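In this supplementary section we document a worked example of the pipeline. Step one takes a protein sequence of length 348 as its only input; no multiple sequence alignment statistics are reported here. Step two produces a three-dimensional model, which step three serialises into structure tokens for compact storage. The input and output of this example are shown verbatim.
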Amino acid sequence: MSRIRQLLAPLASALAGAALLLLAGAAQAQPASSGSPTIDAIRARGQLICGTSADLPGFAFLNEKGEFSGLYIDFCKAVAAAVLGDATKARYVPTTYANRLTALQSGEIDLLSSNTTWTMPREAALGLMFTGVLFYDGQGFLVSRKLGVTSAKQLDGASVCVQPGTTTEKNLADYFRSNNMKLSPVVIENVEEIRNALTGGRCDAFTVGTSTLAAFRAGLGDKAGDYVVLPEIISKEPLGPVVRKGDDRFFDVVRWTQYALVLGEEFGLTSKTIATADDPRPDVQRFLGRTNDFGAMLGLKRDWTVTVVRSVGNLREIWDRNVAPMGLPRGRNALYTEGGLQYAPPIR
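The serialised model returned by step three reads:
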């Protein structure tokens, strides 16, 4: 037996060495972990899964070509450009007000980019985090001109269409209660059903964020002029992208993707000019990744900001393409340099 062992020893040693070489080669073939389970999953499948709406013109909807379009869709594209280097590598999952948060919690989607209001319970109790405010909104009321109503305080006893599972529903009840008015809520999930209820007289008013009201009114077509948005704004509705807690790296990437859109506008860098920009300002050079590799801190390429802005444009371009045609003034959603609230920390 000792003689057999002596004969087999060199073979065993050679096989062990070969196995080690194979394992080393396999380890080198695997991409290094990003430090984010969400990003690793996105890169493994080659696609970002983005939960969004399908019926909000200007924000998130299916256009006449059957393609998703809008402000929230462009943000999903921006994140795909940052993580995968390709804005087209995003898949959109239509969500409802009732299932959007559970879809994110369960891992069905990587990112929620929709009309979702940033509130304390959604962060403190649901295991979710908002990465920023993409759209500053407030809740309002849409009514038929035939009612002769010029103020929300004239809606005492009114039937008001409202969607379930939303902050809107709670704000509506609070507003009527605080103004000692009687309310007859008509709770409907589907936007098309709400449209029929309003135009058919089942509801005296429809309440939701003013951005959705503008989209809803535009969807009325020839009848849009028969309806008016009342002047009262009864709530704060900071709407922003949402991710799951526990993945700080992905949170950082989504947050700084939005800031890249803001800084792109602030620096005057557009989808057409950013790739060849020769602005010598140090802040701009850092933003472009030419003097520092800040992308490495996020597990992204050095010029990731260039890829993002070149793919979808800066924040102004996204606004002008999607929201401005609806007639909504930019207002609070303008840059801080123009009296708005959009403000990005520095990259330095």
